[in-house]
Structures
1.
Amino acid sequence: MDKEPLTISGLEKLKKELVFLKEKKRPEIVTLISEARSHGDLKENAEYHAAKEQQSLNEGRIQEVEDIIARANVIDVTKLTNDGKVVFGSTVYLQNLDTNEKIDYKLVGKDEADLKKKLIYFKSPIGKGLIGKNKNDLVEISTPAGQKNFEIIDVKYV
């Protein structure tokens, strides 16, 4: 059972999701099932089958979240000495040398990754290309969209 690295905010988000799934969504689904049951014949009852499917998906997600939390290796980068090295949980400020665009990413675990929020999975091509590098390094990364060249402008442990 591998430990799953998580940031503190990632762990909090998962705990909130678990509470929601167990305390809000689970009872809602139970209500839907009992309502659908009251409509009679279960063989041809689409509402019943849809509710049972929803229940199955919800229970599966509950198990998945509980498993991630159980395996969580919570990493608090604010407690690490920042020597400019890119590590899990750090925020990396980059300059794309091909487009001159500046961008920043926070390297996070799989369940936290959200590109719209600039949270990238540390095992993604860009994440793997950055881990272990240092401030001021020039980095060439192979991505599905082709080669990208970056300069690491800054690394923050926030």
Note: The beta strands are 4-7, 72-75, 91-96, 102-108, 119-121, 138-143, 146-156.
2.
Amino acid sequence: MDSLIMAVHILVASFWIGGMLFMVLALSPYVRKLPEDVSVKAYQEVGKRYSFWGTVVGLPLLFLTGLYNMNTMGVSFSDLLGWKNQYATTLHHKIHLFILTVILAVVHDFYVGPRSHLSKKFKVSARIIGVLNLVLGIFIIYFAAKLRMGG
């Protein structure tokens, strides 16, 4: 069962980061070349679908499977607060970045992103938050790899 939960965690994390990479590296360069009315519609449609699967479904699944995995590894919440060992310290950093990612994803997906076609301010904010979330996600992957190597 532990391996299944870990596999789900890795699969959902791959979808989350892969989706953001797809948006930045494949979708955005293509959509920016389209007429504005078409590009706005494309961003809005893809954004709604990705928000549902990535933010509404994916992030809670990452949280739940992460808690399970933390318990499986024998790390308690008090270990996280006490920074008792390198593993707990790295996990502490990973969790804080995850919380920041969730906050940014919610702001991006449900406030700034849907309004990005209304003004340059919203458009630039959506891009900045999206790229920042991708960078945070890459750091989370780094911390996950560090945890796998012992902390």
Note: The chain has one domain: 2-148.
